[in-house]
Amino acid sequence: MTMAAKLSPASSQPGLDDFLCFAVYSANLAFGRAYKEVLDKLGITYTQWIAIVALWQEDHQTVKALGEKLFLESNTLTPILKKLEELGFVRRRRDAADERQVIVSLTEAGRELREKGGRNNLIEAAGLSPEEFRTLQKAVARLRDNLLTHVHANG
After folding, report:
1. Long-range contacts: 141-144, Cβ < 8 Å, 24+?
2. Residue-level pLDDT at 11
3. CA end-to-end distance (rounded Å), the chain
4. CATH topology of domain 18-114
5. pLDDT reported for residue 148
6. What is the rounded distance in angstroms from the CA atom of residue 110 to the CA atom of residue 76?
7. Are 122 and 34 in contact (CB under 8 A)?
8. Which of 98, 99, 132, 151 could be stapled to 128 by a disulfide with Cβ–Cβ 3.0 to 4.6 Å?
9. Is there a contact between 83 and 68 (Cβ–Cβ < 8 Å)?
10. Residue 102's beta-bridge partner residues?
């Protein structure tokens, strides 16, 4: 009996490992696990970490602008920022020019996190060369952007 003859009709369908979306999703979970030890030492979550990284890149930005960079809605981002403020890593204040806007800024403690955890480099842990890592990062970002463009065009 050939291998094809042994397959049931249900098994001829793509399996979980055949879905690119699952590969990306599960890779995201693996990144979270890889960062966990470092982030636990800093006392923050991965989502809090990426908010801080975005503020290292551009400090003093509105909650709206930060949310757009992180692909997070305000109602998701606000509790994250509130916790980071409680931890002493960021400061939130109303924009004097437009009271509707809230500006988020790093504190000195938030900037110091770069030295404590910012050197964590997962290129080696990923088992990819630096070039492969950059190529994959760009491909995944392009995939994300294409999917968002599709959703916006059809939504």
Report:
1. 143/20, 143/24
2. 64
3. 48
4. Arc Repressor Mutant, subunit A (1.10.10)
5. 93
6. 20
7. yes
8. 132
9. no
10. 94
Integer Cα distance of 82 and 29 in angstroms: 24
The Cβ of residue 26 has, within 10 Å, a number of other Cβ atoms equal to 13
Residue 90 burial (C-beta neighbours within 10 Å; 0-12, 13-18, 19+): buried
Matching residue, tokens 């890779």: 27
Neighbours of 95 (CB within 10 A): 12
* pLDDT tens column, 21-57: 999 999 999 988 988 888 898 899 989 999 999 999 9
Residue 91 phi/psi, 5° resolution?
-130, 135
Cβ atoms of 133 and 123 within 8 Å: the answer is yes
User: Alpha-carbon distance 25 to 109, whole Å?
Assistant: 32
Question: What confidence tens digit (pLDDT) does each residue in 121-141 have?
Answer: 677 788 888 899 899 999 999
Q: Which residue has the higher pLDDT, 12 or 85?
A: 85
| Residues 64-75: tens digit of each pLDDT | 999 999 999 989
Spatial separation of the C-alpha atoms in residues 65 and 104, rounded to whole Å: 10
If one counts every other C-beta atom within 10 angstroms of the C-beta of residue 133, the result is: 16
CA distance 43 to 38: 9
